[in-house]
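Can't paste images in this forum, so I'm doing it all in text. The chain is below; anyone willing to post the predicted structure tokens underneath?
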Amino acid sequence: MLHGYLPAILGGLWVTLTVAALSLTVACVFGLAGAIAKLYGGRGLRWAAETYTTLIRGLPDLVLMLLIFYGGQILINELGDRYGWGYVDVPPFAAGVLTIGFIFGAYLTETFRGAILAIPKGQIEAASAYGLRPAQVVRRVMLPQMIRHAIPGFANNWLVMVKATALVSIIGLDDMVHRANMAAAATREPFTFFVAIGGIYLAITTVSILALSWLEKRYSLGVKKVSF
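Text version of the structure:
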């Protein structure tokens, strides 16, 4: 099957999934930080968070990937020459994870901000009046409800992020798209290999949709749905 290149492509699939999972972790960190800055930060933090989300959501992912990978590497090495660090070679894996995480952190900022705003303020005030410490209010009241409200937007961002991992192939990362491209060049059958890659991405998104639907139902247990 696939002229013997299937094992190699499946090996690249592990790289793709690893990049997606780590990028999601980075994006959640940026997203939570951005949401908190917008809702509870001072003027400077709110301005920085607003600038971050506006710029990142307004630029193409491909441009940001090339800008951060090549421009970031040049900037780091210029600083290295100035301070005597020596030459620093930024690994494509780290650059890909940080770039995708940084990009989707801007989208998750708005997802988390909306989820926090959807929590009734009376519940937080009641929890504080009941004697819960701020950390307990966050852990027992805010976080569980924020997750429930954030799951739909989070799911959409995850599905787009998985597909965006294909961009890391352009900076030299040996993921499944890169391996499929090499196999297509060797066999001169690009249609065969890229259809296979499309099928793999479709399988990943299908499994993700099922898992996230289950998660949404789990966090919605006991919540009464209002019909109009």
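The radius of gyration is 21 Å. The longest helix spans residues 6-40.
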